[in-house]
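for the writeup, i need someone to sanity check this before i put it in the appendix. the sequnce is what the collaborator sent (i think, or maybe the updated version? ugh). structure was predicted straight from it, no edits. if anything looks off just tell me and ill rerun, i have time this weekend
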Amino acid sequence: MATDFSKLGRLTSSTATTEWHIIVVGSGHNGLTAAAYLAAAGKKVFVLEKASYPGGGVASLRMAEPGFISERHSAIHQMILANPMITHDELGLQSRYGLVYKQLDPCYAIVMEDKVLPIYRERRKTLDTIRQFSAEDADAYNVFVDKCRQITELLMPSMFEPLRDISADIASSPSAEEIAIALTSSSLEIIQRYFKSELAHPKTTGTGLMAYLAFGLLDIYGLCVPEGSGSA
């Protein structure tokens, strides 16, 4: 069931003349997250949104057939799974508001004309599947995901804390060379460094670094969707 947003507040003369510590323009997931943390820190926060619903790209709306709810933009939730907002339930989304994540398995699938290669939450299942096509690439996948975990565990915490210089941490890491190369490479170029089979080349869009993070997050946290849709 879609969430009813009809009772959300509207801008009135009262709210317009109230003094606020923080005004957040836009109620996308980043804006709402920032607003919630600021409010939890004791700030008086006012969120402005032009649309009739909050959530931005993670909102779920009735857009097609009656009775069906569609995700407006997001199809999966991944990076948020590493966020202390989820791992430590810092905003009470799970304990207070009932957020439940459902694991997807398989998480991805590489589809070609005559073959399909599923990528599972459990690494061993993925290795067994890849081995059916290429034993060499199965071994490469194991090495690749170990490296992905290493890079993810190094870089992800810095995304959820005040901005700081992590160049020294990167320079002293065993993954320093891979990170430097990834910053100037495409995801496909990174994948091609490890795998020979065309079937094992996921056409991941974005930067080279995201290839490492995507599979590192997958191996550590899996891939999820929120129960009841993004707006639930």
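The chain has two domains: 1-74, 108-221. Residues 1-74 form one domain.
thx in advance!!
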